[in-house]
TrEMBL record:
Name of the protein: Ribosome maturation factor RimP
Domain Ribosome maturation factor RimP C-terminal: 99-166
Pfam families in alphabetical order: DUF150_C, RimP_N
Physiological role: Required for maturation of 30S ribosomal subunits.
Protein family per UniProt: Belongs to the RimP family.
Ribosome maturation factor RimP N-terminal domain residues: 17-96
């Protein structure tokens, strides 16, 4: 018999409460993390509930703040969420979040990513996330101005993360990622 720690049980319960609220606001629930001290833990351990949401398009801070208030109301009203004070944080995933689902890849389109392949002998591949289909993603690779694309099977990816990137992608890179002229102009002006 396996005993589930109270934090995991609470996280699973909060997930069921929060998922429909996030969906009603057009967000996907990406994760719920709970840090809740168990009886006998030090008294200075803070209680924390961290909820990660994401959606297609840009995340709006005002919308996330409204979502956070609604989630807080839902959690406060539920009798199975302990009444002790806790810190609630609702936000979007950081850039170091692994790309594990098709929607993660779709949302990363045009962004620089680092991909480790399952083949231990294969080097890390770095490029911009491009077109995605059922079982492959195209990476647009810029090697000292020589731009080409490479199709990679999703099943062959061991790990992939978005990288912090301060460079301005070239028009050709964005074209190969699948952007149209208007989207390219927005990206090049820093609005996309």
């Amino acid at each position: 018999m396996q005993i589930t720690p109270p934090s995991q049980t609470l996280a699973a319960h909060i997930t069921t409460l929060v998922e429909p609220v996030a969906a009603a606001h057009g967000y996907d629930l990406e994760g719920v993390s709970v840090r809740w001290p168990e009886p006998g833990d030090r008294s200075d351990v803070r209680r924390e509930v961290t909820i990660t949401v994401d959606r297609d398009g840009a995340n709006d801070l005002d919308e996330i703040a409204a979502l956070s208030r609604e989630i807080s109301t839902v959690l406060d009203a539920d009798p199975d969420v302990p009444g002790e004070p806790y810190e609630l944080e609702v936000g979007s995933p950081g850039v170091d979040r692994p790309l594990t689902t098709a929607r993660h890849w779709r949302r990363a389109c045009g962004r620089k990513v680092a991909v480790d392949l399952a083949d231990q002998d294969a080097p890390r591949v770095t490029g911009r996330a491009g077109a995605l289909d059922d079982d492959t993603v195209t990476l647009v690779i810029n090697e000292r101005g020589r731009i080409h694309s490479r199709t990679i099977e999703l099943a062959s990816i061991a790990k992939a993360v978005v990288q912090v990137d301060f460079s301005l992608p070239s028009v050709r890179e964005l074209e190969l990622c699948g952007f149209d002229e208007e989207q390219i102009a927005e990206r090049r002006q820093g609005r996309g």
